[in-house]
Every structure is written in C-alpha cells, then in structure tokens.
Amino acid sequence: MPLRVLVIIPAYNEEKTIAQVLLDLRRVAPEYDRVVVNDGSRDATGQIISALGEKQLKLLCNLGYGLAVQTGLKYALSCGYSIIVTLDADGQHRPEDVPCLVEALLRTGADLAIGSRFCRGAYTSSLDRRLGQLTFSYLTRWLTGRRIYDTTSGFKALRAAACAAIVPATFMDFHTETIVRLSLMGFRLIEVPVEVRARAFGRSMHSPVSAIRYPLQTLVLTIVAAMDVFLARRPR
What we know:
This protein is of the alpha/beta class. The protein has a single domain, classed as Spore Coat Polysaccharide Biosynthesis Protein SpsA, Chain A. The chain is built from eight helices and seven strands, in the order E-H-E-H-E-H-E-H-E-H-E-H-H-E-H. Helix 2 links the parallel strand 2 (33-39) and strand 3 (56-59).
C-alpha cells in the first residue's frame, strides 16, 4: 500500500500568504495531498484557495488554532492517511522542509516529528516568548523525563496512530499538552531542526493580552493532559 501523506494548513485571514504556501507545496511535494482548514476567515483567503483548486474545510466562525488543527486531523483519519503534517499558513514555515520532516519520521521510526526552531539555538525571539518557551520546555522535561526545545512549534509530522490518540482530547491546543500526552502514552518523539522565516504579512495570533492568557491556558491544558494519562493507567 502506498504511503499517503496529508499536509494540513490551518488558516485565518492569510490572503497575502496562502497562495504562495500552496504553490510552494505543489512544487516541492507534489506527491502529498493538501487541505486548508479555513478557520472562519473574513478576508479573501477562501476565494484564493478555491481559485487555486485546492481542498478546504470551511469553519463557519473563527474557532482558534487548536480546533482548526483538530478538524484537519479528524479529516485525515477519516480519509485513511498514514502520515499527517501540520504547516502554518503565514509563510514562516518553509514548504521545502515538509519532505524532510516526513523522511525523518520514516527513517527514525518516530511517531511525532517536531520542526524545531530552537534545538540548534539559531532562532531568536522576543524575551517574553523565549522565557515562556524555556518554561514549557523544562515543564515538559519534568513531566516526561525528556526535554523538548520547541514545544510551541506548529510544524509537525505525525503518524495516524499518534493522531488517533490525541484527536478525542476535549481541550486541545496542539502544542505542549500534545507533546506531553503523546510522550506519557509511550509514543516516540523527535525534533528536527528547521529554519523559520520572519512573518512578512498579517498579525501574529499572540497579542499583549494573549501574552498572559496563553501561558496560563497552556499550563492548564498540559496538566489536564498529564492527569488524563495518569488516570487512564490506574487499575480499575
């Protein structure tokens, strides 16, 4: 049976970048399927996707990154894909790295490959984000015994079995809590160094308000994920 790979691209108001991301994917990975999860975009994102003849899943309103990814993962499982890749729509992730992430997954036998900005120490970010990243990197090590350097990367490749293990989660952000959940469940995780480009258009989903809300939300989700796995292990 041929290996079936699906690239999921969650997108919210990315009219300036989505076309180039899709065209680049067609060029560097023509054998992979693609689907854009249009997360209630209010600009021309949907029209651009349609004009390119690309598959899109349209959400009626903006549900947020985690639920958009979850929608894409459910679609991938329902269609029988073997490997699923998540790629941001803002152009910061390089489509050229998608085959590299898939190849690393296959070569190592891992269940989840994380495209990491930090494991080689080359990527720089603002002080508050860096502190937050370090905090959750060490939290992951404390909970799982394994340090992951880039716990908030949206660039991941995972096998269908790992996908099926996280899709039923009620609270899902697809970042630190997903890494902790899969690691505690016994899935094998690796980090693959990737280059991340600066955002050229649009706004980051992180605002001054989210700079406080997001770390607290991530902490709660991570604790819930760990408790879910620990409780599932208890004898009944």
